Amino acid sequence: MSLSDKDKAAVKALWAKISPKADDIGAEALGRMLTVYPQTKTYFAHWADLSPGSGPVKKHGKVIMGAVGDAVSKIDDLVGGLAALSELHAFKLRVDPANFKILTHNILVTLAVNFPADFTAEVHVAVDKFLAALSAALADKYRLTHHSGASRASANRGTSNDKAKVSDAINKISNNRKGFFFMF
Amino acid sequence: MVEWTEFERTTIQDIFSKMNYDVVGQQSLARCLIVYPWTQRYFGNFGNLYNAAAIMGNPMVAAHGRVVLHGLDKAVKNMDNIKAAYAELSVLHSEKLHVDPDNFRLLGDCLTVVVAAQLGAAFTPEVQAAFQKFLAVVISSLQRQYH
Question: What ipTM does this complex have?
Answer without folding.
Answer: 0.88
